[in-house]
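Would you kindly consider the sequence and fold I have copied below?
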Amino acid sequence: MRQPWLRGAWVIAALSAAGCASVPRDAGIGDVQNAVEEQSGQRIAWNPAQPIEPPADEPLRPLLEGEITVERAVEIALANNRDLLATLEELGVARADLIAASTIRNPIFDGEIRFPGGLANPFEIGITQTLIDLFQLGKQRALGQAEFEAARLRVTGAVLGFAAEVKADYYTSQAAQQALAQQRTITAAAEASAGLARRQHDAGNISDLDLENEQVLYERAKLDLARSELEELQTRERLLSDLGALQALPLTLPSQTPPASLEEGEPERSLEELEAAFPRRLDVSLAQAVVEAARRALPLARASVYDELGLGVHHEREPEGKGTTGPAVAIPIPLFDRGLAGRTRAVANLRMAEQRLHALTINARSETRAARERLLEARARADYLRNVIVPRRQRILSLTQLEYNAMQRGVFDLIRARQGLSDALREQVLAIRDYWLARTELDAAVSGVLGFSARPERPELPRMDLFEPSPQQESKENE
């Protein structure tokens, strides 16, 4: 009697060992590293066995010395951002789920003893093993593998999406610094113009109206400068947060955004080239993995009504001391719950996953086309400012300077020409920023990482425009 049961125990142990052997020991981090390095050229380092230390700025300070390029910023962020590191921990959770899917449940031992007894204390003992795990182990493992693949793709998308967000924050912060420098030049020119107007007004050379016009231009320039300073501070803080900094550490960015991809004659990628990369999009692969997981779950849902089916052995000793041993079986009776709810849910999940995959097929192409159009518009605007507007402003300043030297133009005209050039340069900075943001967005759309983020969702605070009345002011004015 013992030998068949012992043989069955060995079979169960072998099945469990085979299931655990298929679970990756590194939780899939190697595949994520390879995918991230292939897509972005960056490599992430994550060790789940390393103890978690509280955040500190001291290890980060040496990394921020000198000018930080966009590639360096992404590298530092991938190594230090806690939101990203928390997202990588999802691989450990996915590995645990795969282990659970590849492991059969433990046998159940039950027993009872009754007092008082007769010649001997009567008792009953039994051990039961759920059979459904043995029958469905292969299907459960296949489902676990599909869900693990979906989790791996989700984490990969989050890492690449975060890298794209860091690039966008970098370009935004860099442009804010350059725009602030131009705005300071504009404000300094307005201040000089207002000061000159006051002196000429005191001498009786200009009217009160001319003085007020110069003063209001100066006051408006100061408001624009305050807004530019706030924008530069906010974008810098956002980038420092990406890098994992606790304090407002010194951060040096290049003084000029490289316009290498804005050179004339260098074409952008065609729509055919972008659509050729569509099958390799991460979101499409993830949607396909979700469909596969839903398909794997369907046969398991159909057999869920027999989840408590079990087979075991039972031993009983009577009060007279006589013992009996025999097989035991537990068969669920599908009288009320016939598994309809589970099957209906599994079918609905599969159909929903397939519909979302088809919807993604449509939306992804539309997103790519729209991102490419935004890139082309931003490039055309930047090229137009560089080739037309800024040279004209420079020529206007030069001609104004010549006429001022010939006493044909006044000093106010010269100051206006200098302000106009600074304003055009500021617009050029913002146009180049928009180009790089659009290019980053297009790269993310081609890779299929739009919508992925390692950051938790936070509610957006309302932003009050400096030149718009508050709702309370509007209500008072209406009254």
About this structure: The domain at 8-49+58-108+124-255+297-455 is CATH 1.20.1600.10 (Outer membrane efflux proteins (OEP)). The chain has one domain: 8-49+58-108+124-255+297-455. The beta strands are 108-113, 123-130, 310-317, 323-330. The CA atoms of residues 88 and 465 lie 38 Å apart.
